Structures are given as structure tokens and as C-alpha cells.
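Dear U.,

For the methods section draft, I wanted the exact inputs and outputs in one place so we can describe them consistently. I've listed the two proteins in the order they'll appear in the manuscript figures. Please don't edit the C-alpha cell lines directly; just add comments below if something needs changing.

First protein:
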Amino acid sequence: MGKTTTKPEGATSYKETAFGIISRSKLLHLELEGTKRGLEYLYGLVKEQKNVTITPQLICKLHGVSFGWIFPQWAGEYRTIQVTFSGKESLPYYQIPELVANCCKDLEERIKQLPGPDREEFIVEVGKLLAWFQHRVVVIHPFQDYNGRIARMLTVLILLTRNLPPIEIKAESPTDRKRYITAMQDADAGNFSTLEGLIGHALGETLEQFRREHA
């Protein structure tokens, strides 16, 4: 199988899409719309059934809903090629089904081990859970592209199913993206504190805003 990068260098890179070959700057608008569609899909799921379980099928469905209209040839299906991202080689593509299944099982078990929402450490432990899960999805890199976006959208789903408001981990601007990648790289080395800090800060801000609006 061939090898490709998931994020071409430079804003003048081009990609082949359902709308033809377009520049990176034009693709960004489609990506934002795709993220919006994905989040709307997740909100709809939670509205239909409060206790949504994250499964491999749901993860693939979310990726397809979000980006299948842009990249119909590969979105929504596990990658069948080796890719590089953030300067490192991805895990072998043929391991993806097992890795994703195990990740979902681990997530379900870790959710069961969370302290009750009335416990003081609840928010801190939720932040740790989200940091672990986001990093694990990106490391597995199940799709040809947009693994980080999918991980962050699934973070929103986990929060909603825990009766917590959604958060936004900013990673679009060069500065925010560099900060997020640094946090993920720290986690690669076994240090999750930076990523936990980013998520914890975002969660704290959202909770404070929620309290002000409902005071």
C-alpha cells in the first residue's frame, strides 16, 4: 500500500474533493461545515436517546456524516493506507478494526469508573478521561484524515451523555493548532498534563458560562 500525509504542508496545497480539486483555503470552509454537520448528528442522537454508547459503527457513521459529502471515496471508512501525521508514522492500517473496538471497550469501562457528579473530583476525572480518549483516537488514526476533529466531536458526545455542556478545543488557527499538537505530543511521551490542562480550562470556562446564564 502507498503512504500519504494527512495534512499537506502550506496553505497553497490542493486536494481532490467531490467539488473538484480545490485549494486548502477553500477546503477549510467545507471542513467547518462538515464539523457542524457532525455535531448536529451527535446532538440528534442524544436527543433521541440520552445514553449513547460510542461504538466503532458510530465513529465511522460520524466521520461519514461529517466529511462523506466532501470525500465520498474514503470518508466514513477505515483507512487502507499508511499515513504520516505530526511527523510520525501511523499505526498499521490492518490493526485499526481491533484497535478501535478495544478503545471503545476501554472507554465504556473508564466511564463506569468515573466518580459520581456530586463528588468534588468528578470534573477533574472527566477531564482526564477526555484527554486519554482524544489522544487514543488520534494515535489509532482510523481514518485517512480528520481524526483530530472526530476525536474532539466525540469529546462533545461524552460530555453530553454525562449531562455536561459541550466544550470547544480550539485547533483551527496556527497558534491554537500548535498548542494542541504540542499537548498531543506531550501525551505521546506519556505526559497528559498539558492536554488535560487544555481540556480542563475549556471545560471550566464552559461550566462558568453555563452557571452565569442559569443563575
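Second protein (the one for the lower panel):
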Amino acid sequence: MSLFSRIRKIVLDTLFPISCFSCEVPDQWICGKCLAGIRIRENQFCPACENIATPYGKICPSCRERRKTRLDGLVVAASYENPLLKRLVSGFKYRFITDLAEPLGHLLTGAIVQNDLPVPDFIVPVPLHPRRLRWRGFNQSRLLAEKIAGEITPLMRIEVLEILGRKKYRKPQMGIKKYQDRLDNVKGIFHLENGFLDLKNKQILLIDDIATTGATLEECARVLKSAGAKKVFAAVIARQNY
């Protein structure tokens, strides 16, 4: 974290003393009781149509046939309609509370395990553009990836690879309403860092905080499969309606 980000975090912590986002118990951003109250989604749905329930959010046969999808499935941990979850995600991303990677990562791990998502060879966080990374001071997706890397399999830590980069700075997806515009906004913006990496026959787990249309995850999956990845799944904390 940069010096500016550390100073900003100290100021925010001073203005907003640490207490549970829900019940205001002091000295913790969310207490165990309130965290347990955020229910992991029981059912997962095809990430393309969002209508068909499928194991671990696999692409349904109809969408697989109609669309040239690269993403093989998407696990969504919890409902974004939960007001507490919204506050936690907002605090994580916009109040720069990096400690929230712990409970949010816990939710992600629970969803991945509960849905029997195939064990990946590597975990890949969705990258930020360097300009946004400098502003925020950290990549929230990388913090989540590091959290779950040692928890989704017993006695083994999955390697986290920061192999994706953003080569173009674009408007955040949340500010774009139309589905096609979101697809166009992320088209061609990702690339493999440090030259070509052979991912032949590897299973990859993409990690991001929030998904909406899934356009960002789909574009990341396209790049990873171009490097030989056999399967690319994704997991997010929640999915917004659009």
C-alpha cells in the first residue's frame, strides 16, 4: 500500500472508529454472529441467462449452444440485496478497509466449498488498471484470492497467479447501463503479463468482488483460454442486477 493510501486509511479509521457494520460491537468490522447471518446462496444459476439452476453455476446447455462463452461457470456467494453485504463491499472498496478481505474471503470460500467447484490448478484475481490501483492502494480481488488460496483445499495452498493485466483504462462497469455497452467496454482490455504463459490443460479459478453482466469475467476467461487453459471458472462475493 502506498504512503498516500496509508495516510488516507489512518484518517478514515480516525473518523470512523472500528465497530461492527451491523451491531456496532467495537474493535471488529463485522462480528462472527452478524457474519453468520449472511447466508450463502443455496442455488447457483447459469451465468449467461441467469434462469437455469446448474451445479456450481455452469453454463447451461442452451447458452453454451447459442453463445460463444469462454467462462465455464460462476459461483456467487451471497445476495447483493442483503444490506449488510452491500455495506461490507462498499467499505472494502471505497473506505479502503483491507481487513474486510478476511470475512468476505470467508464467504467466498464457503460458497466454493459448498458448491463443490472443481479444485483449480491456479487462482487468478481480476486485475485493476495501474491508475486505479494507485488510487485505491490495493487490488481487492487479489486480497480475496490470497485469502481463499489456503482454505478451499485441506493441507494445500493453491498458487495465486497475477498474470492478467489491464492495458487500457476504461470507465468502471458499474457506470454503464446497457449490456452490449458493457461488453464493448471490456473488449480487448486484458492481456497476459510477463509474456506468454502456457496454461495448457490447467483449470483456473478467477476471483472478483462483484459481477453484473459477467462481461469482465468473460473477457478474462477468453485471454486465459487463449493461453491454453482447459477450464475457467469464477467466484464472486455477489452479483448485481442490471
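Candidate sentences for the figure legend, describing the second protein: The longest strand covers residues 203-211. The chain has a mean pLDDT of 87.

Thanks,
Y.
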